[in-house]
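Appendix B, Record 12. Input sequence as logged:
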Amino acid sequence: VDENGYLWVGDSTDAKIVIVNPADNSIVANVNTDLDPQCIAFAETPPDEAPVLKIQENGSTFSWKGVPDADGYRLYFAPYPYPASGGYIASIDMGDMAGTSLRFSLGNKAFYIAIRPYNAAGEGPWSNIGIIGNHNP
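Logged structural output:
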């Protein structure tokens, strides 16, 4: 989709691209190119589905189910409770670890956590927020 909201559609059989207005499916233009059709690439969009975060075993283990179009996931975390004077939010690239249960030993500390899927086009929506570590749920 370009900056005007038009969808550029092509396939690998020829070097012709059709520009479609998704609002009414009308064809805006047919564009012939001198490109090798095997070299035409289309931008992907960020994942549009939020992962569901599951906290188990009294907050020491968590997991999430993978979502379509995600190449990986980022784990975001911040101290629990969040300090009134401000704190930090940090992230760790978890790669493609969806479906894996992760266990943490945090002593007497606790953290808010959330997951975001990503791909080459950017990050998708946030998961639900969970709390891991030593806290009173």
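The mean pLDDT is 80.
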